[in-house]
Write a structure and sequence with these properties.
The chain is mostly helical. Helix content is 44%, strand content 2%. It is built from four helices and two strands, in the order ββαααα. It has a two-stranded antiparallel ribbon with strand order 1-2. Helix 2 runs parallel beside helix 3 (105-120) and helix 2 (69-86) runs antiparallel to helix 4.
């Protein structure tokens, strides 16, 4: 993780935040806004709002594509870490985010998404590469959000007879 991306433990429930001068603006407790990644930021914030509202039992609900919500969210963390590496985070190949208990996954997603947005805002990243990574990140986050929300939004569903 980049040292310039602070966690804000004093603001539980806040959405993505960033450091001054990164090209991204927000204040703790608000939604992050950024020019190049505003669509991605919006999707991540939508997902984080959902993740932070789940009870411990909700993490065990089966995601639409199979596996639990916790497993699907951990897979998203892997994808965001990979995209961050491709954007120039400097993380060694094969390094993965540490496994966390489900209640820690929203914070992990926040940090990984924040780092990715910071990396995508760097001037040394070629515009075509930036656009490709931004597009892939948006697709990955949107797919995860839709998969995690799925039918029933976590309520047990009983087939009609």
């Amino acid at each position: 993780m980049s040292e310039s991306v602070p966690a804000h433990p004093s603001t539980p429930g806040s959405n993505l935040t960033s450091t001054p001068g990164s090209g991204l603006t927000s204040t703790p407790g608000s939604n992050l806004t950024s020019t190049p990644g505003s669509g991605l930021t919006r999707e991540v914030n939508r997902l984080l709002n959902r993740l932070r509202s789940w009870s411990p039992a909700a993490w065990d609900v089966t995601a639409a594509a199979g596996g639990t919500r916790a497993q699907r969210t951990a897979a998203l963390a892997q994808d965001l870490a990979r995209l961050g590496r491709e954007a120039g985070s400097g993380a060694p190949a094969g390094l993965r985010p540490p496994p966390l208990a489900p209640h820690g996954l929203p914070d992990q997603i926040t940090l990984l998404a924040e780092e990715l947005l910071d990396l995508l805002g760097r001037v040394e990243l070629a515009p075509a590469r930036q656009a490709a990574l931004l597009s892939e990140a948006h697709e990955v986050v949107t797919a995860a959000r839709l998969d995690l929300e799925g039918p029933g939004f976590g309520f047990a569903t009983t087939p009609l007879r």
